[in-house]
Model the fold of this input.
Amino acid sequence: MPNLSPKKNPMPSQDAKVRRRNFGEVALGYTEQMALDEADRCLNCKNMPCVSGCPVGIQIPKFIQKVKVGEYEEAYRIITESSSLPAVCGRVCPQETQCEGKCVRGIKGEPVGIGRLERFVADYHNENSTEPPKKAEPNGRKVAIIGSGPAGLTCAGDLAKRGYDVTVFEALHTAGGVLVYGIPEFRLPKAIVAREIETLKALGVKIEVNTVIGKTVTIEELMKEQGFEAVFIGSGAGLPRFMKIPGENLKGVYSANEFLTRVNLMKAYRDDSATPIQKAKKVVVVGGGNVAMDAARCAMRLGAEGVFIVYRRSLEELPARREEVEHAQEEGIEFRLLTNPTEILGDENGFVRGMNCVKMELGEPDASGRRSPVEIPDSAFLLECDCVIMAIGTSPNPLIKSTTKGLEVNKRGGIVVEEGTGKTTLDGVYAGGDAVTGAATVILAMGAGKTAAEAIAKME
Amino acid sequence: MFEILEKRALNPTVTLMRIAAPAVARKAEPGQFIILRTDENGERIPLTVADYDRKTGSVTIIFQIVGATTERLNHMKVGDCLHDFVGPLGRATNTADKKKVCVVGGGVGCAIAYPVAKKFHELGTTVHTVAGFRTKDLVILEDEFAAVSDRFERMSDDGSWGRQGLVTNALRELIESGEQYDEVITIGPLPMMKFVCKLTKEFNIPTVASMNPIMIDGTGMCGGCRLTVGGEMKFACVDGPEFDGHLIDFDEAIARSSVYKPFERAEHEKVCNLFREVQ
Done:
């Protein structure tokens, strides 16, 4: 008899009043008892709608059946058949629009907590297993992966499991891409990312940090001189966008990329880090995506007295995950919706002292179907602040494109690829993730890495 | 790990280091930079490539001891290893097709100006160099500049080296005496570059200035190194570090460079005290 409770087992988490001032993980994870109880809510549907919602196609009911009977290692093995980063996905995937969005239990109640179960299984394995993963029989074929974010790591893992000799090149000093520089510690502890990368290394994946492809070495050299028969470009999103309003170069204005990199990669929140960051009193974050939520919540944890999200549409249109918005609200972050900045103001020393804004209202739906915001006349007001973080997206990085002849990009600068294979306009060169699509999610990037790995494995 | 192969004090506050970094040495060109970290909690700092040797696989950096990281770096010895060393980053100086150039360096900026002057010299370009320092004790690379310059103007604030005066005094004299330059390349403190560019603008001489703003990743991701050039936002790490000097908003760059000054001073003091205690 399945567990017929209409509600998911709630996720134990740090109290909002406490966690808003520390960088410890917010969600603490299911206990074994909770996991067993939640697994019992799965109806083990024959047609598995949840699997169709997973960009990497994890056999969800199959792994949950193993959780039900306490065979957690077997559940882990089933997940890793499809995913190279289970502990990461269990934490940061937008399950509500993917697997859980398709769950039958969601029709008359809450879906099965698939993400929470995935996380439980991955954490159980990481805590209890000492057995190294089995290396595949080498097939003698070399593949280079550019970028060690979710797309690159997935592609690397999938190819290593097929016996390929895989080398991942990373520009920064630590592997993980957005998982280490972008997503904060309190959502995704860096020790967990490091652990997932160790697992890939145990599968035989080599990781070369401090290597900027296009500068230290080019794609052509990798293929012609170093014997790589295929290259996967998963170099991620690029340069931050700004609004082109006055005052964006004042002291105290950050891009979300810079702010988050200082905090997450460089650990500027810790006393032993040599990297500085401004400890602002009132912080305004412009934008409404997950990156904006991450930046706002980091600013709060750095000790800000007030943190504001300024977004030009309404709550309904916020592109961030509902859960992230709720977490941010619980932590005291104030939402100034239907508000648009027009100018950042500086004091006599060139530091931010405030931001001029106007109120907006929603007009007719635009081409994307979203109602476009329209300025309300005479609604200007001043929002006082000493720090502004622009979280309004990125443009693709020009480095690889400018150093790789024949690699076609679209008018937004994203690399052009063939649907279903990730093949670029260059022979043997594949691409996926934000470098192709512009800023998207971890799991979509992983899906693209997986697709490319399959296509590379089919190469003659 | 990147071993320190050679270390030499060029003056009391400026140090030269030669680092084993074959992959960087293979590609480095004048005008480009590297990013290093001394240890695993260290910050990422950009330093312009001062020289490179493709055969031995080494890259030379020259740095002024100004903050915590350069203080730590200066306490490292030959045989020690830097934790990280990545590059070459940024675009190389465009040294093609120029008959005569004037390289204007100030202070530790001369360390970056030198490889540019050397490259022009190797290409057969006539090189005039104007170098300026506060005082004689701070002079670096005098013999090196002399060897690659067809004309070498030495300037110091107090007159203890060469002539007393600013680099702009010497540059103005050269221009007014009829020297015709295809380009002026200026590398040094921001206020100096600002006035060099102001001067060459007067005479309509194309001028490039090498910018060294605050940076983190150095690969076109964080946007910390942004500056305004000709009214547009540019990123020094991928669009630069050299820009048309007549279009750079120097006042903004000067303001932005000071954002972490109080933090840097405090950190530097902490590190100095730490080393004092150790001794």
Summary: The longest helix of chain B spans residues 261-278.
